[in-house]
Amino acid sequence: MKRSNLALVIMLFMFAFAKAQDLAVLKYKGGGDWYSNPTALPNLITFCNKNINTKMNTTPVSVDAGSTDIFQYPLLHMTGHGNVLFTDNDVENMRNYLISGGFLHIDDNYGMAEYLPKELKKIFPEQELTELAATHPIFSSAYRFPKGLPKIHEHDGKRPQALGLFYEDRLVVLFTTESDLGDGWEDPEVHGDPESVREKALQMGANIVKYAFEN
């Protein structure tokens, strides 16, 4: 894309983001189950609409990583258990989306961490995923998490981590791993989590939504 055309496209997308308040599920290639946790986002959206005054559609749509449809949404949610593959078209599209004001939250549903970093490296080759300090605003945008990302599910007994990529000092990609927020957002009977654990997951999710919509 020529520089002049890209600048125009970015301006239009930024205008669209200013008016939009919705999120979508990111579909990706590689065989990973991008469609996992089907009740998670509807529950998170309902929680946000009730508690942080968002007005999101309670039935999120799914959009392909290589489609311009992603530019209709200021926040993309990505999850799964396995392999991730971004094509060259996906990489260009995702980079343009992120540098023009978009935000990508990737929640490791267990198994993504092995594959994801090399694919993100295609989008921002000059960066490595960096752990966010507990003082980062995303941990206090709506609810306070003074110790950083909460632990929702045990997998390998490792501590939860919130890792990020930045564009011009703005956090544009958040990768949450060893936490499994999405499992905490699902219907109570799916995983049998105590209400206090689900509440933490939903509150942290609301923080992510609020941060993405306002930054």
Total strands = 7
| Principal-axis shape | globular
Rg (CA only): 16 Å
Oligomer: single chain
Strand content: 15-25%
Total of domains: 1
- Helix-strand pattern, N to C? HEHEEHEHEEEHHH
Largest sheet: 7 strands, mixed
Helix content: 25-40%
Distance between the termini: 26 Å
Commentary on this structure:
- By secondary structure, the protein is of the alpha/beta class.
- The protein has one domain: Domain of unknown function DUF4159 (Rossmann fold, 3-Layer(aba) Sandwich), CATH 3.40.50.
- Helix content is 36%, strand content 18%.
- The chain is built from seven helices and seven strands.
- It has helices at residues 3-19, 40-51, 88-99, 116-123, 181-185, 188-191, 195-214; strands at residues 23-27, 61-64, 75-80, 103-108, 130-131, 161-167, 170-177.
- The chain has a seven-stranded mixed sheet with strand order 2-1-3-4-7-6-5.
- Strand 3, helix 3 (88-99) and strand 4 form a beta-alpha-beta unit.
- Helix 2 (40-51) packs across helix 7 (195-214) and helix 3 crosses helix 4 (116-123).
- The protein is globular and about 40 Å long.
- The mean pLDDT is 89.
Summary, kept brief:
By secondary structure, the protein is α/β, with parallel strands linked by helices. The chain has helices at 3-19, 40-51, 88-99, 116-123, 181-185, 188-191, 195-214, and strands at residues 23-27, 61-64, 75-80, 103-108, 130-131, 161-167, 170-177.
Layout: helices, strands, pairs:
Blueprint: H1 3-19, E1 23-27, H2 40-51, E2 61-64, E3 75-80, H3 88-99, E4 103-108, H4 116-123, E5 130-131, E6 161-167, E7 170-177, H5 181-185, H6 188-191, H7 195-214
Parallel strand pairs: 1-2, 1-3, 3-4, 4-7
Antiparallel strand pairs: 5-6, 6-7
Helix pairs in contact: 2-7, 3-4
